[in-house]
Amino acid sequence: MDECVTSIGMPCDGYVVVDEGGRQIELPYAEGEAGYSFHFGDLVYNLRRHVWNECRTAVTMLEATVTEVLVERVAPCVDRAYGVAYVMRNGANVPELPFADVSTARTESVDAGADVYCVATAPLIVMCDGGSSKFKALHQHYTPAANYHSHFVGLIVRNARLPLERHGTVFFGKNGPILSYRLDPNELRFLVDYNKAALPSLEEQSRWLTDEIAPCLPADMRPEFIKAAQTVLNIRSMPIACYPAAFPSIMGYVGIGDHANQRHPLTGGGMTCAFNDALLLAAKLSAIGDLRATNVATMSKIQGKLQEAIISYARARVAHSASINILSWALYDVFCAPLLRNACLDYFLRGGEAVSVPMALLSGLDSRPQQLLWHYALVMLRGAQSLVTRGGRYGNRDKADSFTSNRVNTAKFRVAPSHIYEVFQLLFSAVLVAVPVSYNEFVSLWRLVDPTGFLAFIFKTARVASYRLSARGVNGKPVGL
């Protein structure tokens, strides 16, 4: 399936961070590894075409909208999904050869008549409809955020060059990071952090991009960026919410990708987690064999094995996705706080494992949480040391620290309350960043208790009722309860 990505994607060899003064810090992936950036719609099209071409006899393709997950009560306070209800336009059939060429890839736009309501049944419902799915609140142990954390304002800029091609690039705006990466030989995507819960109008966003964001970019990129930002139809936005990973609350139902858990898009880890989820779930299901049987007793055994596989998958995926998720939120907060940012960049300049391990974690090649914890602690402790000695390569613009200056600055630190306060602020801020996101990822009752059982049903019913008494329940983000 590699060609689904490589045929449309632009190869990416790592990241580069560009600070306010234009200084570049390169963060390469491990040798021989590469990422890809692409138009998401092209990837979805390629994946569908691959499945159709390789698994046509086992796949039914429909163009429809799912309106309901069908659920039945199988025991007191225990529910199971057994299918979906969906609606499609009458007569809007998929072409016989939907992926033969561009002209036949889409159904012709005709007056197809009234909608047709249909039902499809299956012992397993796999949901991959994104982070704003209405079903995630209905059929998962889902805790909504009180409000959106922030927004990414997106823009496609043409005829511009990155400071270092084949690298995702992070610039620093006045109040948050700016991410840019190449989509094709002529297009760059910019994702600009707007760190407020509500967005202004498109006209105000356009002025904000032109007046406040463009000056933060390299001079050679500004004209094309401003040109794109002045056309409001070019501007897109994506709300970002922070909430814990969700476990399925009914049997026969499982979510992959953003449906199960989201992360900050700054690090671009969404598709990495989604593909890993798909591979992990497939591995868990492969041991079952046939998922249908005509014999009732055999079918009951299959459903039991399915449920074991779902719960095993839901618990196992945390190990891989947690490091990517925590790192995405932590890097966002670090890049927004000058003290933390300077400590992080100073650590990256050490090279070696100070770059290779964080990049392996970010890309999903290394999913060990202990590695993330260790290097995060090193970043902040090294940062505190640099504040004490007034050393560090980033703060001193690559000048080597001398033994004498370190000792003199350490002596001054002991009698300088402002310096002591900076160290305390750095370490305290580091804890405030890491603890909440780590708690969200790792602490869950459903890692120990069956999330679809009797007690889980009672727990969810009471919890949803209590949340609905507050605005957070009804108006929670990305979807309410």
From TrEMBL:
UniProt EC number: 1.14.14.17
Domain Squalene epoxidase: from-to ranges: 122-389
EC supergroup of this enzyme: oxidoreductase
Catalytic activity: squalene + reduced [NADPH--hemoprotein reductase] + O2 = (S)-2,3-epoxysqualene + oxidized [NADPH--hemoprotein reductase] + H2O + H(+)
Domain of life, source organism: Eukaryota
Molecular function in Gene Ontology: flavin adenine dinucleotide binding; squalene monooxygenase activity
Keywords: FAD, Flavoprotein, Membrane, Oxidoreductase
SUPFAM superfamilies (UniProt xref): FAD/NAD(P)-binding domain
Compartments, as annotated in UniProt: Membrane
Keyword hit for Membrane: yes
GO BP terms in the entry: sterol biosynthetic process
A GO-annotated cellular component: membrane
Requisite cofactors: FAD
InterPro entries linked: FAD/NAD-bd_sf, Squalene_epoxidase, Squalene_monox
Task of the protein: Catalyzes the stereospecific oxidation of squalene to (S)-2,3-epoxysqualene, and is considered to be a rate-limiting enzyme in steroid biosynthesis.
Family assignment from sequence similarity: Belongs to the squalene monooxygenase family.
Protein name: Squalene monooxygenase
Taxonomic path: Eukaryota, Discoba, Euglenozoa, Kinetoplastea, Metakinetoplastina
